[in-house]
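can u pls check wat happens w/ S-adenosyl-L-homocysteine
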Amino acid sequence: MANKNEVPVRKNQVLTGTVMDLTYQAMGVVKVDEGYPIFISNALPGEEIKYLVTKANKNYGFGRLLEFIKTSPDRVSQENSVYLQTGIAPLAHLAYPAQLKFKQEQIESLFQKEKLPLTVQPTLAAPEATHYRNKAQIPVRMIEGQLETGFYRQRSHQLLPLTDFLIQDPKIDATVKEIRDILRAFHVPAYNEEHNSGVIRHIMVRRARKTRQQMVVLVTRQRHLPQEDAIVQAISELPEVSSIIINYNPKVTNVILGMQERPVFGNAYLEDELLGKRFRISAQSFYQVNAEQTENLYQQAIEQADLQPDEVVVDAYSGIGTIGISIADHVKQVRELEIVPEAIADAKINAELNHVKNIDFTVGKAEEILPEWVEKGQKFDVLIVDPPRKGLQPEFIEAVLKARPKKLVYISCNPATLARDLRLLIDGGYHGTTMQPVDMFPMSNHIESVTALELD
Ligand code: SAH
């Protein structure tokens, strides 16, 4: 760069450049004067593009694609770029094999930065690259006086009406559209964020593919819907709807579900099957969104854990107990640990449904409970963790390094926190050889993986 302090571009400049890289957020990167990066959506490595500079910060800028001069062989043509604009499917412009490679390389580069001595395997492809999601949370808003369902434009509160969500089970898309039409017919006003007025905020639909059951959750700003009985009746007649819940969320918040819910039709839960076991799932409980690929993910974890009949396994961040119950037949005892009480309530019922007896349950924060167990001298041989995106807490890792279980299986949905945590675990006396990315979220930039470690 000519002058280190000088920003080499100005806002509203039109430039051409070659895309060098694709970031974790799926933005193409063009470098100006060799060093200054400009992030541009819908631009792939190797492509030559004309773009408009939309923002020029001190150390980086943003641009908007104007024209392709040369496109990538990995680009798939898209009839509709709405999936990129909304962030529903930020990798929808990249061919599926290239998405798998992108995810592997993202992990490799994070592992290189942390100097982690693990080989990253090629990403295990999902059985279906589209229409795989079993859960939808669809915002509802008024547009020009009409109730609409769709998705927000990225980094905005502007709703784009949509009926085909590309990555969701088409039966869910159909149900959302039918509910939209019922709400329109009954003249139910949609929520208005600005004035905190209106009624319907979100429609959530979850579907169990094996049992063909659908749960509908109407998230409302009022305790009761106008003409509630008639609306519930109409929704209950839609195909496969087995449960309707009204979730009351009066707050000004981005959090979708409120704390109070009221079942108004059918059961307050769904049932699905994974690896031959049956699972009950409440509205508030976590359930993997890609059930087909979840079986492969768990299979990877089970194989890598190399479970033995005399072993005690702790399944931390257990949700509704899917992993613990799937492995219980192969080990001496399973200990489930989870923060959401509803999920543990589901897990207990799930253990009963599957006649699993060698299992116990604890509600609490993993980073508080595990240190207590270790303090009391409770022993376990295998630790399976499946934390949310923020990864493991330092207190949790400290407790692991004190307890020193022989084997550790880390299921991760965020390679950045995974790399950080693996560094600490490896420094603390664990080693591993390979790690397996498993694509749970085709078309999106989310990266799931399984890593097994053993005590040195
Ligand atoms: N293993 C389960 C759930 C994984 S999702 C499955 O495959 O379905 C992560 C789970 O961790 C969620 O159920 C979430 O409620 C739980 N969780 C989040 N923070 C936690 C914490 N601090 N301690 C224990 N569990 C936590």
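The chain has a mean pLDDT of 95.
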